[in-house]
Amino acid sequence: MHFASDNTAGVAPEIMAALAAANAGHLASYGADPLTGAVVEHLREIFEAPRAAVYLVATGTAANALSCAVLTQPWGAIFCHRNAHIEEDECGAPEFYTGGSKLVLVDGPHAKMEPAGLRAAIAHTARAGVHNVQRGMVSLTNATEAGTIYTPAEVAALTAVAREFKLPVHMDGARFANALVTLGCRPAEVTWKAGIDVLSFGGTKNGCMGVEAVIIFDPARAWEFELRRKRGGHLFSKHRFLAAQMAAYLDGDLWLHLARHANAMATRLAGGIAAVSGASLTHPTQANEVFAAFPRAAHRAAHAAGASYYLWPFDQSLDGPGETPLAARMVTTWDTTEAEIDTFLAHLR
Ligand SMILES: Cc1ncc(COP(=O)(O)O)c(C=O)c1O
Ligand SMILES: C[C@@H](O)[C@H](N)C(=O)O
Q1: Is the CATH code 3.40.30.10 the one for domain 255-348?
Q2: Has this prediction a pTM greater than 0.95?
Q3: Ligand in closest contact with the CA of 94
Q4: Phi, psi at residue 55, to the nearest 5°?
Q5: Which residue range or ranges hold the Aromatic amino acid beta-eliminating lyase/threonine aldolase domain (predicted)?
Q6: What are the pLDDT digits (tens) for 280-335?
Q7: Fold agreement (13-253, 255-348)
Q8: Which atom of ligand 1 is nearest to the CA of 64?
Q9: Which residue, by CA, sits nearest to atom 8 of ligand 1?
Q10: pLDDT score recorded for residue 344
Q11: Could you tell me the residue ranges of all domains in the chain?
Q12: Distances 329 to 235, 263, 281 between C-alpha atoms, Å
């Protein structure tokens, strides 16, 4: 019963096999290998963006921080949700890689920004000229840190606000596949056609060992990204092993199959939890993360049975009256099984 994070899952067998298959002979390094070239073309095709620049890195934090660095100046503000991963879980990497940009936090329900809140935050910034940080960029996460998703129309409404102030927009897509299979739309519709300038396209949480693609829809920003990636220590020398993962991930729509399974398991889990006495969902379940509150006694039973997941916030205590509900996050993955879900639910009940 492993629900702590999709970061704890292993590597999908197709991806591991692709790594072994790529381990033959000598190939050009630093991205000059043929596997990388093929992956770049495949992602351009998937996103209907033949001019896009595509780069591979090994972590989502690197993808996000380097994306921000090419979208804003050090004196610029990065407008993001209060619970954005770039705010809560990247140890200041975006601030570091941008040379000091300030994250300006925007509230909104279920970890989603709304146009009015974003507009108010941007308008309030740089109101006193040189004395303030300037307006830099916007970053939004899809699927969000609360397991919710933005529709293409919601993305377009936020990027329209950004455009009012001539700001570029980044999408943290560490769980983009999970959002896309729920939306059922084409990748382009919820990215560049909705006004996104740069996408962090995640692979690691959805079955890869460690690979993320940064897709820059305006190639004018490409060279600066290359320089920043190398200078930041994120240009892999044996780049073929990043490309092999991504190639297998995209091949035959594996990325969609893996995400569809993870989401289906989350839906099963959420439905079961909703039927547990004293339990309630704290965010809508729209991707592969379930946020729910249930009585301490249920938490204690699940933990005693060996279930792994985080109370959310982390720092709550299992000690205390059994009937008190505590909130938690449970994350399902490409290899979560129905039996795992049903056993966990039985312990909760
Ligand atoms: C929404 C989101 N973005 C970015 C990241 C960063 O990925 P990494 O931990 O590979 O740096 C994570 C990590 O799980 C995440 O949940
Ligand atoms: C750090 C933690 O938030 C991680 N990104 C996760 O989603 O599990």
Answers
A1: no
A2: yes
A3: 1
A4: -135, 145
A5: 3-292
A6: 999 999 999 999 999 999 999 999 999 999 999 888 999 999 899 999 999 999 99
A7: no
A8: 4
A9: 60
A10: 97
A11: 13-253, 255-348
A12: 33, 14, 10
